[in-house]
Amino acid sequence: MKPSIFTGRYTSCQEDDVVVFIIGMRVNKRWAVHKWLPVFAAMPTMIRELSIQKEHGCLSMESFFGLRTTLMVQYWRSTEDLMAYARGPKHASAWKRFNQKARNNDAVGIYHETYNVPKGSYESIYANMPQYGLAKAIGHHPITPSLHTARQNLDTHKTY
Q1: Judgement on whether residues 37 and 110 belong to the same structural domain of the protein
Q2: Is there a domain that residue 149 lies in?
Q3: What is the 3-state secondary structure (H, E, C) of the chain?
Q4: What range defines the domain where residue 62 resides?
Q5: Among the four 7, 27, 149, 157, which has the fewest Cβ within 10 Å?
C-alpha cells in the first residue's frame, strides 16, 4: 500500500515525552557471513513483534541500510517500556544467541543509543511527506503561522 502524501508543511504533535532508540550493526568482515548473518537475522522477529503488538510501547520505527552498517530508529512511549522489552523473552533469546555466536569475534559489531526527550524539547518539520519518523510515531498537524520556523516551533512547546 502506497503511503499518503500530506501536501504542505507539518510538525509532529508534542503532548508527551518520547524515547528515541537507535540500534544497528556493522559488518566488519564481509566475507565472514556465517558470523554476521545470525546477528542480522535476529532482528526481523523482534521488528515484527513490535510492529504488531503495540502494547510493548514501541510507537514507530524506520530502518536504513548502508554498505556495511544498518541503522534503525525507534520511537518508544517510555524508557520503562523499552527496558521491559529488552528484558522480555524475544530480546533475551536473541541476545543470548548473539553472545554465543558473535560476542568474541570481530566480524560484526552492534551498537545502540537511547535518548529520553521531554515534551517541548523536540522539533520537526515535514514538507510534502507521508507520515514519517516522529510524525508517524506520535502524529502530526499542519504548521500554522505561529509555528512557521523551527525556532518558533521549539519556543512554543518549551516547558519551564
Answers
A1: yes
A2: yes
A3: CCCCCEEEEEEECCCCCEEEEEEEEEECCCCCHHHHHHHHHHHHHHHHHHHHCHHHCEEEEEEEECCCEEEEEEEECCHHHHHHHHHCHHHHHHHHHHHHHCCCCCCEEEEEEEEEECCCCCCCCEEEECCCHHHHHHCEEECCHHHCCHHHHHHHHCCC
A4: 18-117
A5: 7
Task: Please check whether residues 55 and 94 belong to one and the same domain.
Answer: yes
Q: What is the pTM of this model?
A: 0.84
Asked if residue 130 is part of any domain, the answer here is yes
**Distance (Å, rounded) from C-alpha 20 to C-alpha 73?**
7
Do 129 and 113 have their domain in common? no
